[in-house]
Design a protein that fits this description.
Elements (H helix, E strand, L loop, with lengths): L4 H22 L5 H11 L4 H4 L1 E2 L3 E2 H15 L3 E4 L2 E4 L1 H9 L3 H10 L22 H6 L6 H4 L6 H4 L1 H4 L3 H16 L3 H19 L19 E5 L21 E3 L4 E8 L2 E9 L6 E2 L10 E5 L2 E8 L4 E4 L1
Antiparallel strand pairs: 1-2, 3-4, 5-8, 6-7, 7-11, 8-9, 8-10, 11-12
Helix pairs in contact: 1-2, 1-4, 1-5, 11-12
Amino acid sequence: MAKSTAENTYLRLKTVLDVLTEGVWSGDALNAGQVLAEATARVPFNEHESELLSGGIPRGHKTLTSATAKLVKAGWLVKGRSGWTITEDGMRATVAFPDADSFAAALDAGTPVPADTPVPTAPEGFVRPVSAAAATLQVPAKEEAPKKTAKKAPAKKAASAVGKAAKAIEDAVEPVVKAVRKGKASAKDKTEAAPAAAAAETSGATEPFEGPDVETLPQPEAVAVAGDFNTILGAPENWAPQYDEAQMEFDFLDQLWKKSAELPAGFYTFKIALNRSWTENYGAFGVFDGPNHELHHGGGTVTIRYNHATRDITIN
């Protein structure tokens, strides 16, 4: 495996196309989270990439998600609400640029795939490779227990230990998040990126893909379930999204934020609040600052899932 974040990211981008091509051959439909999980299973994170950002998201995962925009710009990948689809040119690119160096050079330069490059076909007797991540992802979605296997990667195992430390990262990026929300990101990002770039240059971390992470579908730095049961979870007060006890964890396999808790039987109300404040919050039907979500609970464990793509939640 290559040592630098930039080299690893290019390898994972090529692997994304390889995984999608194999899916075409085998007829398997993988969602975006599954494709990313398989790419990172085949090209594991190095120590730097394994560091967690707020919400338990490994740095390398956010970097890769951001970098997939290059595949879209090249015309090799199409992102839709129903998932990711590799284009014919994307499949041909895996043939035209078979090694990491030529692939990276072509992607950066915008080199078109030569017209005479054939669309790759499955080798005789092809069986799609099944890594540890892929084996986990083949389990039906409702069977939660096996999914925990995928969380045993070093980055996920460390999530609980670094959760509080990640708050410092969140505080640092909060001004940028607010600027994006107000439609002023372009000018402000340039101003605020300068100190970060200078710090990176001082430390020697000047390689590509190490700048601010801007995803095609950005995830919040933190997501909280803020409602009238936060004190039951151990928070000092209810309806307070700033406390650790209210925070959800991001499952990058499913691309969902999740919170499980033991609650007594009763009627509860809550909202989803982003980045430990009420500045951006979502209520019923994913409405911004909308009416409260309602939970009629019979008692016991309840799991709340938040989908940032739809701004809505599911409960079971």
